[in-house]
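Fig. S4 source data, part A: sequence.
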Amino acid sequence: METTDYEHGIVPIDQRKSWLSIAAVWIAIGIDLSGAFLGVALASGMAFWPAIGATMLGSLLLGLLAMGCAYVGASTGLSTAMISRAVFGKIGGAVLALAISISLVGWFAVQAGFFGTNAQIAFTEFTGLDVPVQVFSGIGGVLMAITAFWGYRSINRLSSLAVPLLLLLLVIGVVVAFVTKGAGGLDAAVEATFTFGGAVSLVMGIFILGVVLAPDMARWAKTPKQAMAAGFVGFFFGNSIILVVAILLARIMNESELMSMYFALSLGGVAVVVLILAQWTTNTTNLYSAGLAFSSIHPKLTRRTVTLVLGVVGIIVGIVGAADFFIQFILVIGTIIAPYGGVYLAAFFTGRRTARWAHGASTPTVDVWSIVAWVAGVLVAFATTDPAAGPGFGWFTFTTISSLDGLIVGFAVYLVLWIARTGLRPGSVAAETHAPNDEVRA
């Protein structure tokens, strides 16, 4: 088995994969217990059809955004963290790479905690024994870290095997629920605790970090067009499938835990397989991207060593109960990280023919304009977040989706600053190609 994941360089053309296999990775990432958790929350806090509508709209927006981010990854062949060096400069890129890796380790811990909670339910149902949840969180974290350690090729193989089985098992659960319980619960009245815009924001927030990090997987695509196809299919279907299934089952079964629902339907064995595969395929990519990001900070850092260390940290954090902060966590992640996606999209599409995007090209120490655009996006995202829905000020509304607000503003501010610098003059883009190697670009 090949061991390199090209963490410091470009994925060679002869190592690229088909769009369908990359889409399978993203679908596998999307089918996870955090999505089930959110689906149950939406089912209990919204009428049925608005919950489905919010799920589909949020997933559609994710799919469209993923197309652009995947295009950047496939065109450059670089990981998200390496792209940050081209956008923010050496120091700026290293700081952002560190932020991304910390966020992903936190996400890894959250998912390990979810795995532990649901594995404990399944184990108790089968054996009647009460084993501490920390044991299952630890076992799950180790399982997820193993594949991340081996790299993308192992993740790709795992996803290709897991996705068809996961889809089949999820459909079986819904069909059995309808046959045994009927559809009466779909129209049951509930107290509205989510606005439509707030629900769409949560649907996007649960996978928005995946969109921004799309280059980590898209760089393996054979062509940019194939990466775009994989991005749309992977994010639209990957994000919506588990949410729709969870909403349906929560309404029909009137339960709050996906594993409990499956056991109530006498599908305990199915529940265990779904639990293991869903969390394994999702969380291993969190740690994989965390390792890619951190190893990009210095050329002497190897992805495998970094992945091993971060995996140990993530497992410990998961065991102590990081999952308790799930909703606040995804809102903060969406608010802070999403604007970066807008900035690197704008930076790439305004300067993709310049030398800054070539592997090994000279970069400034800090690109002030990119950082200004990112900070502007973060501030707007916080300003448009309703305090009742998450950390923010609620000063005004834009799209009603705070993470999308930040991404759009980050994109727009960078574009405005680029126009102001270049004046769209002939040769102005070319001039950027020859920026001094170690100067602050300002």
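Fig. S4 source data, part B ends here. The two ends are 45 Å apart (CA to CA).
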